[in-house]
């Protein structure tokens, strides 16, 4: 399992690469309806990567902001989506909400498994 330092590094590198590619191909992403939806999905991946980066940064520095990291990551992803097309903002928000729900559900399952292991020993 990757530690917070390496996960933070990988998420920042992927964020930079995906944002650069999105900006390079924003004309193509804004050309059709399907590509516009794809642009929103790509922006929601930016949200996921930035949220991972901020969460690992908070874990390594000992600072906890709660929902602050989510709001910052969502704002940055929506700004990145707005550079492609207006509809990308809406689809990015919807895809990000689904991703956040799934991350929360996965985190709860992982936490409950780790708690059950510590209660046995």
TrEMBL record:
The chain crosses the membrane at residues 6-22, 34-55, 75-101. Coiled coil: none annotated. Its main location: membrane. GO terms for cellular component: membrane. The keyword Transmembrane applies. It is found in: Membrane. Keywords: Membrane, Transmembrane, Transmembrane helix. InterPro entries: KRTCAP2. This is Dolichyl-diphosphooligosaccharide--protein glycosyltransferase subunit KCP2.
